[in-house]
Amino acid sequence: MDLEFVKRVEFTKVARLPQPSFDLPDLAGYPQIKQINTELEGERYIQLNVQNTPEWINYVCELLKKSDALGIVAILDCAYQFGSADIVNSGLYQIKKQLQKDNSGTEAGELLKRVVVYDNFENLGDVNKLLNNILDMIPTQFQDRPLNCILVSNTSIFYWNLRDEENFDDLAELHRICRQLSSKLGCYVLSSRSLFE
């Protein structure tokens, strides 16, 4: 094959829209997860305050089960909460165990294969950079699938640094990017924090 004539196609030009049937789990069943700051959000951008980690893991598990068979879920794991399905005590390991109760091992494996986890963040600026380039960061094997949801988990891990620096620009930028992505891509974008009132 003559590579001189091979054309590079950017994922942003071929990305598929989320499946219309995909919807988020109802928060009514999760009393320790509250929707907050609705004035910052768009129709598909939702900010959540999470006060119970097991309940949050259950919510994400339910989200994966509701996701379309081909759709993918991208998790930006700010606090190393989800890890890998092979690491005991990680969020994804707990989700794998729950999925295996409700599905065969093969079905549970297929559900987990549609999860892409990013967790190499030192600050909220790193999260924003990845969000700005999210479509270019999706692994090649998933680039023919719809992106159903982007989940930015536990952004509050960086709040202390923002407070110490007395500069919340990165937090404002996070909300701007999330609103923009939800509008541009038509997928759900969730950002969660864990601040206790």
Features:
alpha/beta; Rossmann fold; single chain; 197 residues; six-stranded mixed beta sheet; 17% strand
What this model shows, in words?
The chain contains 8 helices and 6 strands. The radius of gyration is 17 Å and the shape is globular. The protein has 197 residues and is of the alpha/beta class. The termini are far apart. The chain has a 6-stranded mixed beta sheet with strand order 1-2-6-5-3-4, sandwiched between helices. The chain has a single domain (15-155, 173-193), classed as Rossmann fold. The relative contact order is 0.21.
In terms of per-residue confidence, which ranges show pLDDT below 50 for 5 or more consecutive residues?
A: 1-14
Rg over CA atoms, rounded to whole Å, is 17 Å
CATH architecture term: 3-Layer(aba) Sandwich
Assembly type of the chains comes to single chain
CATH C-level class is: Alpha Beta
The topology string of helices and strands comes to HEEHEHHEHHEHHE
Strand content: 15-25%
Distance between the termini: 62 Å
Number of domains: 1
Mean pLDDT: 82
Strand order of the largest sheet: 1-2-6-5-3-4
Number of strands: 6
Helix count equals 8
Query: How does the overall form come out from the CA principal axes?
Result: globular
Report helical residue fraction: 25-40%
